[in-house]
Design a protein that fits this description.
It is a single chain. By secondary structure, the chain is of the alpha+beta class. The chain contains 3 helices and 5 strands; from the N terminus they run αββαββαβ. It has a single domain, classed as SUI1-like domain (Translation Initiation Factor Eif1, 2-Layer Sandwich), CATH 3.30.780.10. Strand 3 and strand 4 form a beta hairpin.
């Protein structure tokens, strides 16, 4: 149960530095670019997913909340589940055409389908 706290600090258990701060202070989120400035790639992936296909949306630059909101809208449009992990939006199933259609409709003109 205590391992979660240790792992969240990168394995650090104790520090003798009186000015030590366990979390990075200078880390700021990037500003979300306009849809026309985004260079988004849409591709199909089956690796490490028990043979099930997912649509990956990569290259979105912006705040995490905006990325999650975009992911939610895409999942709703496709009528499937998915998630936002490690900088990628994951939509279950092969929905590359639907995702591409939605992105272009809402101004993401620099979008391309890979594969």
């Amino acid at each position: 149960m205590g391992n979660k706290k240790i792992n969240s600090l990168g394995g650090l258990v104790y520090s003798t530095d009186p000015n030590f701060k366990p979390f990075e202070e200078g880390k700021e989120e990037e500003e979300t670019l306009l849809p026309t400035q985004q260079k988004i790639k849409v591709r199909l992936d089956k690796k490490h997913r028990a043979g099930k296909a997912v649509t990956l949306i990569e290259g979105f630059i912006g705040k995490e909340t905006d990325k999650e909101e975009l992911g939610k809208k895409l999942k709703t449009f496709c009528g499937t589940g998915g998630s936002v992990k490690e900088g990628e939006i994951i939509v279950q199933g092969d929905n590359r055409d639907k995702v591409l259609q939605w992105l272009q409709k809402y101004g993401y003109t620099n979008t391309k389908k890979i594969g």
